[in-house]
Amino acid sequence: MFFASIPTVTKEMAENVEELLTTAGHYPASDAPLFIYSYNLLTEALENKEAHVLEVCSGYGQLLMALARRFPKSDFLGIDQNDLPRPEAAKIANVKFQCGDAIDLKGLPDSYFDLIVGQATLHHLSNNLGVASREYLRVLKPGGKCIFIYEPLGHSWLVAAVRAIRTSLHEMVDESNLFMSALKSFGEDFSETQVGCFNLIGYFAKVIKIRRPGFFLRLNACDQCLVGWFPFLLKHCANFTVCYTK
Ligand SMILES: C[S@@+](CC[C@H](N)C(=O)[O-])C[C@H]1O[C@@H](n2cnc3c(N)ncnc32)[C@H](O)[C@@H]1O
Questions:
Q1: 113, 52 in Cβ contact below 8 A?
Q2: What pLDDT is stored for residue 175 in this prediction?
Q3: pLDDT, tens only, 159-179
Q4: What confidence score (pLDDT) does residue 162 get?
Q5: Ligand 1 atom with the shortest distance to the CA of 101
Q6: Which end of the chain is more exposed for a tag (fewer CB within 10 A), N or C?
Q7: Are 143 and 191 in contact (CB under 8 A)?
């Protein structure tokens, strides 16, 4: 089953993940609704569980360390191709990091993880989505979830043009827009795919220097209304978070 929508994001949801949100401080404030929604997905998946959690492309590990602090009964493993400094990690008993390829999980057992998370990750793996999907299905338990947070959606020519200009200015590499068709085929062997889309008019709010999430929650509600009236606009959102259930 495949579902896609602009999710409702409330102040209560923001309060529930206030601490986790501080770890997303290096992303634009206009993306607050997406992170609030996504971090609520993570807390729902981990609440009252003793879970095994894997983060792929964990970078400096801020999100994983914050999750490990909030859920001390669960254990957390981060994998990134770069051996980055994470001095805080030594003080947190239930978190570990290792250097490696996000799509080559040979050393990890089958059906072991309850949750795989990736943040700003899937678009780095766009040349190998089939391999990634098979590998994540292998290491996930039945009913386990794979959640990719803050990914670029490429259907809007306007957003794609702005991104192309920004990419050429920053000389970034390996950053591909993703499309609904790719999300569907990644999820073919999962039982459910749920896509939360964000930033329709909200994308252009990146230039506004407001940092209050309340303003962006109202913009998200406007995006929701627009898509309610004109459903074809959904895929023109600039970003998404996707949750696959095995
Ligand atoms: C945009 S950063 C995101 C980091 C972190 N998830 C965050 O949200 O701050 C992308 C990360 O993916 C890692 N990466 C890219 N391709 C990878 C691969 N094939 N295997 C492991 N890590 C990879 C990079 O080293 C980088 O740390």
A1: yes
A2: 63
A3: 888 888 888 887 665 568 899
A4: 84
A5: 20
A6: N
A7: no
Distances (CA, A) of 237 to 26, 158, 198, 240, 244: 21, 11, 6, 8, 19
Which of 64, 80, 106, 239 to probe ligand 1 with, by most ligand atoms within 8 A of CB? 80
> Residue 226 carries which side chain, given as an amino acid letter?
L
Probe target for ligand 1 pocket from 23, 121, 126, with the most ligand atoms within 8 Å of CB: 121
All structural domains of the chain: 2-245 (3.40.50.150)
Q: Is the CB of 101 under 6 A from ligand 1?
A: yes
Q: β-pairing, 140-152 with 239-245? A: antiparallel
Q: How far apart are CA 92 and CA 69, in angstroms?
A: 7
Q: What are phi and psi of 243, to 5 degrees?
A: -120, 115
For ligand 1, say whether the CB of 151 is within 6 Å of any of its atoms. no
At 25, list the tokens.
């401080």
- Residue entry with tokens 């292998």: 138
The rounded Cα 231 to chain-centroid distance in angstroms is 23
Distance 175 CA to ligand 1 centre (A): 11
Residue among 60, 63, 58 nearest 124 (CA):
58
Could you tell me if the CB of 38 is within 6 A of ligand 1?
no
